[in-house]
Design a protein that fits this description.
This protein is mostly helical and 307 residues long. It contains 14 helices and 4 strands. A two-stranded parallel sheet has the order 1-2. About 2% of the residues have low confidence.
């Protein structure tokens, strides 16, 4: 999904680590507008984008970090602790206007796609929900994957089997050492299925409402990954077209689809459909379906038990 959005011309903010071309970048005019809207008036008056360009860029970078941090809170997402939202820079920047906590989402920089893995719609800022209901904006996309493959990916991620030097707090502080201490991969899966705090059940359950919401476009990993990841070219093209139409982009799906499977992507590990089949034993299949089978049903993935 990140690759698709970048190739549609968006910059990406949130949990993924986008390529250089997909990282938020703002013109001088955009920086001035953002600072004027959200920076304390006295701080704004002290800015000099012509006489001291370096200081201007540094201060407006901090304005963006403060704005992004505020919206993490307003959207009730898991606070980020990497890349563009690093403490203490985001928390001890210049003084901001109180409007940073009340302004509509439409006042955030244009062309930025906000991607989060864990969103609690029931705790979201009501002014955001009202804006979304009354204007249809921002455009919301639900991207999901077979929960069994997600579990395998989580185990790899937290036990460092994927080779990524990437932290996601607070989970990495707990699950990382625990899973690293378990040598047998099957036992790692057993643990992941038993720990109630493993981010799977709650994340998928909170997304079920979005799956049926008429103002949400939903698309699966299996649809987008294409033949290189074990999927279908025809299904991939249809998914790209559906997302592009949702975002009001007129593009040739084939020209974009060819670029989606990117082995150089920071967070791409295997990128294949059905990896769980190589990792699960029959006992794992039975145990997963006993606890998470309703998620397979809700998201349209076939169960395997008894076959």
């Amino acid at each position: 999904m990140q690759e698709l959005l970048v190739h549609l011309g968006y910059h990406v903010y949130g949990e993924p680590v986008p390529p250089a071309a997909g990282r938020p970048a703002f013109s001088i005019r955009e920086r001035i507008d953002m600072a004027e809207r959200f920076l304390d008036p006295a701080e704004f008056e002290a800015l000099d984008h012509e006489g001291d360009r370096d200081a201007f860029v540094h201060t407006t970078d901090q304005v963006w970090l403060q704005l992004a941090l505020a919206w993490q809170t307003r959207l009730a997402v898991t606070p980020l602790a990497h890349v563009q939202a690093v403490a203490p820079e985001a928390r001890f920047g210049p003084k901001m206007r109180p409007e940073i906590w009340t302004a509509p989402f439409s006042t955030t920089p244009v062309g930025v796609s906000w991607i989060f893995h864990s969103v609690d719609v029931w705790r979201m800022d009501n002014t955001f929900l009202s804006e979304w209901v009354n204007t249809g904006s921002p455009k919301v996309i639900l991207n999901y994957r077979d929960p069994r493959d997600v579990l395998v990916s989580l185990v790899d991620f937290f036990s460092r089997n994927n080779g990524l030097k990437f932290m996601r707090y607070p989970e990495s502080a707990i699950f990382g050492p625990v899973l690293e201490s378990i040598e047998d991969y099957g036992n790692k899966l057993d643990y992941a299925m038993s720990d109630p705090q493993m981010p799977l059940l709650s994340d998928f359950e909170s997304a079920i409402s979005f799956l049926h919401h008429p103002n949400v476009c939903h698309v699966s990993f299996e649809e987008l990954v294409g033949p290189q990841g074990g999927g279908s070219r025809a299904v991939q093209l249809a998914a790209v077209k559906r997302v592009a139409n949702w975002l009001d982009h007129d593009v040739d799906p084939a020209s974009v689809a060819d670029l989606l499977f990117n082995p150089q992507s920071f967070t791409l590990n295997k990128g294949r459909i059905g990896r769980w089949r190589e990792a699960f034993s029959p006992a794992h299949v039975e145990r997963f379906e006993a606890r998470f089978g309703h998620l397979l049903d809700s998201f349209g993935y076939a169960r395997e038990a008894g076959k």
